[in-house]
Amino acid sequence: MDSYDDRGVGDGSGSGGPGVDPGSDQPLRATPPAEFAGAPAPVRSGIAGLSLPYQIATAIALSVIGMITCTHLAMVFLHVAPSNTLTKQHGKAVDDWVYPEFEQNWKLFAPNPLQQNVAVHVRAEIAGPDGRRTTGWMSLSVEDSRGIRGNLLPSHIHQNQLRRAWDFYLNSHDVQNRPNGLRGNLSERYIRRIVMLRLGEHDYGGTVERIQVRSEVRSVSAPPWSTEKISTKPNYRVLPWWTVTPADLPENTKEAVK
């Protein structure tokens, strides 16, 4: 019986096995199929598909764009961030970058809490059977506080109406109480109507002829553990006397007068 080796070598017309040339000691190389013999090389896309000079130019351009973007984001962040060491040292550079094209009207964090207590007072000149008399100052803010304390669902009127009306007035008038535009006249009429609406809840024994409004501002005292010295002395801003007109009266009062 012939061995495996005898069968592989003794046959003059046989092959020496797959991948082996019978007349050579070197193994045969696999021949690719005909359909893949002329296949083109894969096409590169993106930056890799550009020539070397264009690749360098593109990389430089992207680097410059990235640096400008990071610088812009940093400047806007410092602009909207609270005051800190960087903004104090480089505030002018930040403002020069942001204004006017990239002006921001918001802040990164919530604004500082109010550090002052503001109360709105009113007094009136009453024309009654005994002649004219002037009432004492009445705090409208205290009346709002009474409607809020102990109330699980306080009304929007008690919480915000008077406060926002007073802020509206201050923002639309100068320190001499002169209106600085059309909104100034609107804010004055708004304050007068609110005051007359509140005074209508009280019986003064006569007709309100004139009213005067003032604000009382007191700084919030420092906590017991703080060594900061804060004056809690009140500061007043007194508005001129206003003569009451029919436009200042609530609708039901206007009908009664008619």
Q: What does this 3D model show about the protein?
A:
By secondary structure, the protein is an alpha+beta fold. Among the domains are: 46-98; 116-148 and 156-220 and 231-257, no CATH class. 38% of the residues lie in helices and 15% in strands. The protein has helices at 4-9, 52-80, 85-98, 140-148, 156-171, 182-199, 251-257; strands at 116-128, 131-134, 138-139, 207-219, 235-238, 242-243. Strands 1, 2, 3, 4, 5 and 6 form a six-stranded antiparallel beta sheet that branches. The protein is elongated, with a radius of gyration of 44 Å. Mean pLDDT is 81; it is low at 12-16. Residues 10-20 have a biased composition (Gly residues).
Which helices and strands occur, and which strands form pairs?
Elements: H1 4-9, H2 52-80, H3 85-98, E1 116-128, E2 131-134, E3 138-139, H4 140-148, H5 156-171, H6 182-199, E4 207-219, E5 235-238, E6 242-243, H7 251-257
Antiparallel strand pairs: 1-2, 1-3, 1-4, 4-5, 4-6
